[in-house]
Amino acid sequence: MNINDLTNKLKEKNIKVSFQRIKVLEYLNNNRTHPTVDQIYNDLHLEITSLSRTTIYNTLNALVESGLVKLITIDDNTSRYDIDTRNHGHFKCQTCKNIYDFKVNIDSLSEKELKDFEINSKDVYFKGICPNCSI
Which of 5, 15, 106, 108 could disulfide-link to 1, CB 3.0 to 4.6 Å? Predict the structure, then answer.
């Protein structure tokens, strides 16, 4: 996606367009590694010295609430962000800490026991050792 595409995505979701918001969205689009707030801040702060962590948090919250970005909570104490909002699973390597996407038909998972529950999201997380680390 180019800057115009990213700007249009923000406008479509009624998010006020700003340089910082475009840069965060561009970063997520170009770094599909499920980054943390600190990773985004550290990388963007080199380019935008006036950028604050609060701006990153507020931008990410707006992007998540609008559905442009998905919050990944595969770690107990670390939030990560994914620009791919389609249904898919995540695998976290317990050695290198990388998170990998994998295809899974989340809609085929049975919900019979939850018939009286309101389901707001479905996530599939696996943890283990990736092929690179198991060598």
Answer: 5
